[in-house]
Design a protein that fits this description.
Elements: E1 5-10, H1 14-30, E2 33-40, H2 46-62, E3 67-74, H3 77-87, E4 92-96, H4 111-118, E5 122-126, E6 144-148, H5 153-169, E7 172-178, H6 181-193, E8 201-206, H7 210-220, E9 225-229, H8 240-248, E10 252-256, E11 270-276, E12 279-285, E13 291-294, E14 306-308, E15 313-315, E16 322-323, E17 329-331
Parallel strand pairs: 1-2, 1-4, 2-3, 4-5, 6-7, 6-9, 7-8, 9-10
Antiparallel strand pairs: 5-10, 11-12, 12-13, 14-15, 15-16, 16-17
Helix pairs in contact: 1-2, 3-4, 7-8
């Protein structure tokens, strides 16, 4: 679940600076490109905005980001951020839940709210309520992750990605099921067994409203990140549970894209992990349009590979194995290739 290009917006406010700090640390951890954008309103001072952007870039490099680029643009902040994310091939957008010219935390018309409703990438919403505290987020990243699951394929994908993120960050993970205890015990068992080796996983069975109990468990466990899938999320609608969690969470919230594209939507020269007949398949479409389907399960320790568009490779986020588009090993520790799969264009 490592990211290759991260975008963060800033306006020079204290709250935006905290979001920048987290984005820079993530970029440093994963050697990802970091794009910092400031969106000024028409007729606002360009020179002042440029100085803010320069300071943000310097601060990002101090936090560990190595490849930093900046953009000074004009227009509606949310619209510009979304358009730039697509144009630059960004796979994670980072915003604060307050700031970016807004006074209210995650207000319906705010920049964070608008980005959350329309983002086509993963979205990290940084809790900036303690941004004025000089000791806030003084160092490090996340130590305890919480994710809800209900047994659905999208929730299972969110849980899988959370467990892989936990392995990458050396963080503990709590799986939460809200509903029938008998069904929940089975779902939690199957979900935990599908995670990578070497990660501490706690399981919680809860009764009540899903969003309320997920945020409640996070508070009780003193977690610092809640992960939710974007089920029910399209270009204009954020699913009810992710929306409620994002509005009320006592922590940062990562909304991961779990509604995958279909095979037909994969463009030439690109790849994606999609669901085909109930199974997940890593599919690359070459420049001539031919499909190259392989298993997404890394042969080293079973993590799911991610598509690396910059290198046109399948990369394992857990231990760094890399495969070519036909599944052959380019870099270890994996020794065996990804197993071939079969899909049709109609899928």
């Amino acid at each position: 679940m490592a990211y290759h290009r991260i975008l963060v917006g800033t306006d020079g406010s204290i709250t935006a600076l905290l979001a920048n700090r987290i984005a820079a640390r993530l970029a440093g951890r994963w050697e990802a490109d970091l794009v910092i954008v400031i969106v000024r309103r028409p007729n606002s001072a360009r020179a002042a905005a440029a100085r803010v952007l320069e300071r943000a870039a310097v601060a990002a490099k101090r936090e560990g980001a190595e490849v930093v680029s900046t953009e000074l643009l004009e227009g509606d902040p949310a619209e510009v951020i979304l358009a730039l994310a697509e144009a630059r091939g960004v796979d994670l957008v980072v915003v604060g839940n307050k700031g970016m010219e807004q006074r209210r935390r995650f207000a319906p018309g705010s920049v964070p709210g608008a980005v959350a409703r329309s983002a086509s990438t993963d979205l990290l919403i940084v809790d900036t309520r303690d941004a004025s505290d000089p000791a806030a987020r003084a160092e490090g990243l996340y130590r305890h992750l919480v994710v809800g699951t209900d047994g659905s394929s999208t929730a299972g994908e969110a849980a899988r990605r959370t467990m892989e993120l936990g392995l990458l960050l050396r963080a503990d993970v709590t799986l939460v099921y809200v509903g029938d205890p008998l069904i929940g015990a089975i779902v939690l068992e199957e979900t935990a067994n599908g995670g990578p080796v070497g990660i501490g996983i706690d399981r919680r069975l809860e009764l009540g409203e899903p969003a309320e109990r997920i945020t409640g468990v996070a508070a009780e466990a003193e977690a610092d990140l809640i992960v939710v899938g974007n089920k029910g999320m399209n270009r204009r609608v954020l699913g009810s549970v992710p929306k409620e969690v994002a509005h009320s969470a006592p922590t940062d919230v990562l909304i991961v894209k779990t509604v995958d594209r279909t095979v037909a939507e994969i463009q030439a020269g690109s790849g994606a992990v999609v669901e085909v007949d109930g199974r997940r398949v890593a599919v690359y479409r070459d420049d001539a349009g031919a499909l190259h389907p392989v298993s997404p399960r890394c042969t080293h320790m079973g993590c799911s590979v991610d598509w690396n568009g910059a290198e046109r490779t399948w990369d394992c986020p857990c231990h760094g194995s890399r495969y070519d588009t036909d599944g052959e090993v380019l870099r270890g520790p994996a020794r065996k290739p990804l197993a071939p799969e079969a899909v049709s264009e109609k899928k």
